[in-house]
Amino acid sequence: MAIVKMQKISIAAAKKHRKAILEQLQDMGLMELHEEQIEDVDLERMDTQAARNNFERAAQTLDMALKLLKEYAPEKNAGLSLFSEKKLIPRSDFQAHDSRASGLLTKAQKLVDLEKEIHELGAANLKDRATISGLTPWMSLDIPMSTRGTAKTEVFIGTFPEDQSDEALIAGLTADLPADAPLDVNILARENRMVYVCLIAAKSISETLTENMRQMGFARPAVSCRRIPGDKIKSLEESIERRKRKIEENKKEMASYGLLRRDFYISADYYRSRALKYELLGKIPQTRHIFFLQGWVTDQSAEPLARLLSEKYGAFVQREERNQDELEPTVLENPRIARPVEPILASYGLPTHGRFDPTKIMTFFYVIFFGMMLSDAGYGILVSLGTGLILLRHRRLEEGLRRMLQLFFMCGLSTTFWGFMYGGFFGNAIDTVASTFFGYQGDAILKPLWFEPLKDPMRLLIWCMLFGLIHLYTGLAIKGYETLKAHDVVGFISDILSWFMMLTGLVLMLLPSDLYGSIAGTAYQFPAWLVAFSKILAGGGALIILVMSGRSKKNWALRIALGAYDIYGVTGWLSDLLSYSRLLALGLATGVIANVINLMASMVGGGPLGPILFAVVFILGHSLNIGINLLGAYVHTNRLQYVEFFSKFYDGGGRAFQPFGRQYKYIQIKEDK
Predict the structure, then answer these.
(1) Domains in the chain, start-ordered, CATH in brackets?
(2) Of 154, 245, 419, 570, whose CB is crowded by the most CB atoms within 10 A?
């Protein structure tokens, strides 16, 4: 049975057992809990929003702390793996974590605070370095920059544009002033296209001097201070050094928290599970003494769960009937080889109960079509070897990633098969290496077990159409199975058998035709009875469609019109069938690009550096080719399932089973012996 039978149950238990029962259900992860819509004045629901928010914030703090540990205290060999797997934790360790969680959260917050302080110190250093940069041109100034003068003098500290000499600058400043005017001009530096000056003048000439300065573009400094610039710079540099030392101290302290990494993993998932529990707790209807739960379990686990809750907690557990408009969750149960394709199916939509689960059939076609599109034995070996090694080395990968790797492992095997069938191993790499480095000029060393598509593409196109027709027929047959399962014999004859008849008849009519002969290079000679039979088959199917497609209509004119429109739908079948030409197109693209890469590599293969250059071009080129065509094969194989195959019988509409359980992001619980 591909779709597991589900059972709806209700639970009523004493409120004193609420915590224990919820934790039991959360540990088991067998029941999808729903919010019960019970209208009763005696029932109430707890306000758990504040507690839930606290737990979520705690989990986020620990997540942040773990992220910081990756930077400041990286795990040994962590950089050698692209895939992180969950940490195996005994259940007793997790359950005993309740007393330690608060203290670990405090330490995680301390780690986050240390990082925050590092950023603040770094920002302060950047600010001080900018100040130092602004004060550096004023280093030779021996008075505070805030000085504005005395009772009889005025001091002007600022800049002029650096487009005039010292003499011109002085001449401009003393314009309209007496020759013996009390003015001291100190040119301190020329930097950044600016002239840095300090002017000391008697107040008696300040008005004229100020006007001259304005006309010459005088500006107050962007960076100023109340101290002598040299002293200020020295003070800032000392502050920067102090902050640097503090930053290093913080980093060392943060690195010491690496010893708590395992505990942080447990705490993060502990608080995440608590948040989920309190989210549910706020939805549970309860009285002063009793609380109620309702939800879905698999049929096989309903009785053991009911017995456990009754015997251990004295709970009352009752089986419930599904409401008429209620959609029960879907759990798929497939052979191990088909499970990797379940996420592909779920992306389109899970089947509803009572419908056909196409996972097993879809797996067969998916793997075959993927291999035909990638179609290179070398690429297939790399894909299967790479994914296989990852799966062997990492046993606790996230479920979705693990299934995806398993799918690509199978697709790699299929690719290897089709590669040898077509004679492709990194394109024509074996022949290229033999001719480039060993002077081999004979026939192909690796001969195809079937035929070479590059030399006979039309032959492959015909086979692709045949595989596509089988795929589409399978979809139509599944629809026929569901129709008969619903005891709709008339519907089976009208909507399924009629199309099989018409399509098969049209195919049989096509095979001996000149059109097929011009495409395939050969034509079949059918006996007269088979030619007549194909016409009768196609005509009979078309007649049934014409008369029966609109059978729900009593008006015969409308009925015939609807039937004629359905017959026109044969063009949709033709369009779907032509979509399978992508099996040819992507397969040829992989082979052609691989051969071009080998040709480019052979062009640089001569001379003493030839083998090295050959290897560089070969590795880079084929890496790019396998990446592009892996993506192409994945996308187009999905499209053949979603658009062509599913359109014949499948509409999804189911929803996934989401049992109440602990959310483990970092750990995996190992049951104690």
Answers:
(1) 16-99+256-320 (no CATH), 146-220 (3.30.70.2750), 341-459+597-649 (no CATH)
(2) 419
